[in-house]
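User: I need a structural model of Butyryl-CoA:acetate CoA-transferase from Sporotomaculum syntrophicum for a docking pre-check later this week. Nothing fancy, just the predicted structure tokens so I can convert them on my end. Input:
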Amino acid sequence: MSFVDQYKNKLISAADAAKMVKSGDWVDYGWCLGHSFIVDKAIAERASELTDVKFRGGVTMWMPEVMKVEDAAERFTWNSWHCTGVDRKIIDMGCGFYSPMRYSELPGFYRYCVEPIAVAVCQVTPMDKHGYFNFGPQASHQMATFDNAKIKIVEVNENMPRCLGGTEVAIHVSQVDYIVEGPNPPIAQLGAAAPNEVDQRVAQLIVEEIPNGACLQLGIGGMPNAIGMMIAESDLKDLGVHTEMYVDAYVDMADNGKINGSKKNIDKGRQTYAFAAGTQKLYDYINDNPEMMSATVDYTNDPRVIGQLDNFMSINNAVEVDLFGQVSAESSGFRQISGTGGQLDFVMGAYYSKGGKSFICLSSAYGKSESMQSRIVPTLAPGTIATDTRTTTHWLVTEYGKINLKGMNTWQRAEALISIAHPDFREQLIKDAEKMKIWRRSNKR
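Assistant: Understood. Predicted structure tokens for Butyryl-CoA:acetate CoA-transferase:
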């Protein structure tokens, strides 16, 4: 049977696809830009018939229709591998939960750990002449998701970029159970906020540490974006990319001739990534681009792989850091803000790299002047998650300076961290350090 005939035989309506979901099922929506769109709407229309349906997703870019139904918390549960503002809203609604993980392990979770999936559905590109549906900019763990699913459904979107590169970037028509042709919604866009003065100062401190030929990983947020913008305007050259998330800043660097991957020890000449989200210029750039290498996250985020790349520069955000060097990048008290994601993977991988450096960047304080709070704290508050343990933390950077914690004992760490704290909080932090017995009498004041 030809690929076209297989396609026709498997083509069904979104309403028929939704009928395959039963009460008590686990349903997987894929990841980020690939989340189900039209089948999600059809399942929501069946809400009154369903109870205890458990959905999985992550890096949620829009509110799922199943979470908009009137009694969502009584019928559905949303389980997210990584929290965005949308995921936080769902958690606040009382029907959402965060699923802790190191992102590099996620394909293995699906293949060996999590409950069997009744229905897996995600958006894909139209079928090519070889019978393949490309996963678009989220190869990440999608094939592993389908490997664990009893029913595999692809939702065709003509606007999805076709992303080339590594293994498991596409699924063949013979491997899927059903195909749904949707309304071809535009791909969700993620803009970056303009960097402020603090972002620019932190970026300056980090960029001066980056050598020519370095390989880059940028996290999402104002500071990594500012670093990318500054690199794009710098004299740096021959840079490489090996990252979990591909963002607009890389496109700017590439357009300015900063990226060619010529010094990479592996995947030479390729920009390697697990998923991507940004503006239309990013989607246009990665579409059918042979320079790009879309890969599974158990490759991109494996510290053993990262460590093979010389001069690897990992740059990520944090919410707060304590005087022991523990970094929280995902929660504030009991409130889940983001997720571990790949930060710990890259912190460890960069340290394994010859000449590599892991930078955790954050503003020294937040809030308005009358209610300003320090991001460098004596200890993490109860409920706050340590994303990076004190033994893995390498470089820390605020607008007041940069420090390398590797090799430091507790009093040296306290002194170094207080030196990059906001000046208004330094005296109190010294008193706190004294109480915790991590401050020497001869320390600088």
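Before docking, keep this in mind: The two ends are 79 Å apart (CA to CA).
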